[in-house]
Amino acid sequence: MSKFHQIDLSNVETISIRSRKSKVRVSDFAKVVGSNPSFRKFVDSLPRILVAEDLRNLAGDIHRSRRTKKPVIVLMGAHVIKVGLSPVLIDLVKRKVVTAIGMNGAGVIHDVETAMWGKTSEDVSENILDGTFGMSKETGDFINETLLKAYYEGNVGFGEAMGGRLNAVRARYRKVSILATCYRLSVPVTVHVGIGADIVHQQPTMSGSATGELSFRDFKVLCNVVKNLQGGGVVMNFGSAVILPEVFLKALTVARNLGYSARGFTTANFDMLQHYRPRVNIVERPTQDGGTGYQITGHHEIMIPLLAAMIRSELR
After folding, report:
1. How far separated are the first and last CA of the chain, in Å rounded?
2. Between the chain's N and C termini, which has fewer beta carbons within 10 Å?
3. SS (H, E, C) the chain
4. Beta pairing partners, 73
């Protein structure tokens, strides 16, 4: 005889599965496609469950936002460029799907190096051993001198100055440059830096005044873009764990403080791991009083091209 009492289940009330609310039905299951399906058939074959359905809904929100002339903003870390996704984003800019891009300082470095010399992403583990990590003279000179010139000669921001310079010098690979493309197409591209975080900050040509001022100008450009997230629009964060989520939240509060009803839009965070700031500053807080937020976990080099193809499919 057990010394512990067991509850009597004989009076438990049951319900019918026919009336029970269920989240998954056979109609939601994935479908098997043929050996040579169209992309549209592939998308339709995905299960209408969890992230597969989130991706569909996000692509639909982006399509609706552009149809109603609402902003579609991409915030991005440098890894997006390092894994070769610049052509994918550039295509969305050219199709007038993406209406603004914000990046961190490392994103500028990878974009500039790719546009000018066709390669980027040095071997940090090797170069840190002898103190040469981040000491590429051409990279530092190009970026820092461009910023200093813009600081003294006009009121342009960081992204606009970089894009303009890449086009002015006719960078050999400028067709795969996000900065150069956005400049040519007059699409706002903003740069938000943390001084001391980027390799060009450790070189003799670095100007804290120019770097800080031009990044500040870009913050004001981003605020001006964010204010139009009224009753629609989409903000996507691709892989920035700290800088862009923090900058976006401040831009949003500036817009609301100035009286703009920046509410009712969609947000999404794409990353290999979900972090605190993107979750709360991109997905949760901006949409808590109206809107929808998605968290998409996976490798950028797979998930971003997939989303872009789904968007193009929606456009067709």
Report:
1. 71
2. N
3. CCCCCCCCCCCCCCCCCCCCCCCCCHHHCCCCCCCCCCHHHHHHHCCCCHHHHHHHHHHHHHHHHHHCCCCEEEEECCHHHHCCCHHHHHHHHHCCCCCEEEEEHHHHHHHHHHHHHCCCCCCHHHHCCCCCCCCCHHHHHHHHHHHHHHHHHCCCCHHHHHHHHHHHCCCCCHHHCHHHHHHHCCCCEEEECCCCCCHHHHCCCCCHHHHHHHHHHHHHHHHHHHCCCCCCCEEEEECCCCHHHHHHHHHHHHHHHCCCCCCCEEEEEEECCCCHHHHHHHHHHHHCCCEEEEEEECCHHHHHHHHHHHHHHHHC
4. 100, 235
The pLDDT score that the predictor gives to residue 316 is 66
3-state secondary structure 222-237: HHHHHCCCCCCCEEEE
104 closest CA partner among 235, 232, 236, 245: 245
Question: What confidence tens digit (pLDDT) does each residue in 214-265 have?
Answer: 999 999 999 999 999 999 999 999 999 999 999 999 999 999 999 999 999 9
